[in-house]
Amino acid sequence: MKRAIQKGFTLIELMIVVAIIGILAAVALPAYADYMKKSKVTELVLALSAYKNPIQEFTTTNGALPTKAQLGMDTASASSKVSNYVAGMDYATSGTDTVTLSAKAGNIGGDVDGKVLNLVGKLDTSTLAMGWTCGGGTGSLIPNKYLSAACKSGT
Q1: Cα(15)–Cα(20) distance, rounded to whole angstroms?
Q2: pLDDT tens-digit profile of 36-53?
Q3: What is the pTM of this model?
Q4: Helix (H) or strand (E) holding 151
Q5: Cβ-Cβ contacts under 8 Å for 126 (sequence gap 6 or more)
Q6: Where are the alpha helices (DSSP H) in the chain?
Q7: CA gyration radius, the chain
């Protein structure tokens, strides 16, 4: 007697494929969520970087660090520069040679929202050039796993 040729997949083969897809999805979804948060945190860096050139230009022209008002950060128009993922920005000086730009995260995700990313500028008084470092400062900082390599702190 001739055996019938099997057409299609057996139930066990289909169940194995579904199990493999489930395992891959269980690994991929959390990694994708972290990747999305990391890409949104990049917008914080971009928002802070927009102030680097104006600060450098003011410092080179005037020989001193600008105030918050001179940067236009204390006016209502400064809020128009805030994006979907930047809940607020701040600027502070320490002495005559250090500035700190801060951006507060918003609408990114539970463990990032409300946290702060700092961009610290140090003025070389002999050349009037600003040197910038990402991170540092005080407050509730964004976890390292969401920061780019240039912004990660040593902790």
Answers
A1: 9
A2: 999 999 999 898 999 999
A3: 0.76
A4: none
A5: none
A6: 11-49, 52-62, 68-71
A7: 25
